[in-house]
Amino acid sequence: MSASQNAKQHPALIQAQSKANYYVGQLDKELSKYQAFNAIEQRTQVPKAYAFLGGVTLLFVMHSFNTFASPVSNLLGWLMPAYLSVKALETPAHNDDVQWLTYWVVFGFFNFIESLALRIILYYFPWYFAFKSVFIVWLQLPAFRGAEKLYGSVVKPMFANVQAKASTNAYATSE
């Protein structure tokens, strides 16, 4: 028996392959809930779990080189949210509309702040775009409700403060 055949029959390798297959199956089951992944699988004949894992790996590699980090984080921030926003507008329920409107307000606020200080941020924080990508995904995922949390704790209080000052100034100038 050759060394490669011996390695293939090692119990640890067999157990690792079994666990990997289990998790890929679970991922496939979860991705089956989304029509977009089902359509990708039908068109490409690549299992949706492998396509998803390949996409995540590609993003990771691109971020690892940090060359494409800015475009990738912008793609994450715009592409899927734009698609899901249009989809939300087409449904009669308003919950998804509120979720995506809140996302766009927080995302826009964040991008405005970022535009004011990007050079400084990049000087002190070289892997900024990798962390920004994780932050954007956190904002988007309904399980975390990141956009709603930031809206309630940061954006809304700042807006209320600015609005109060504006109404006070308007009242003072009208006297």
Automatic annotation (TrEMBL):
Belongs to the DP1 family. GO terms for cellular component: membrane. It comes from the Eukaryota. Its main location: membrane. The chain crosses the membrane at residues 49-69, 101-125. It is a multi-pass membrane protein. Keywords: Membrane, Transmembrane, Transmembrane helix. This is Protein YOP1. The keyword Transmembrane helix applies. InterPro entries: TB2_DP1_HVA22. It is found in: Membrane. It holds the Pfam family TB2_DP1_HVA22.
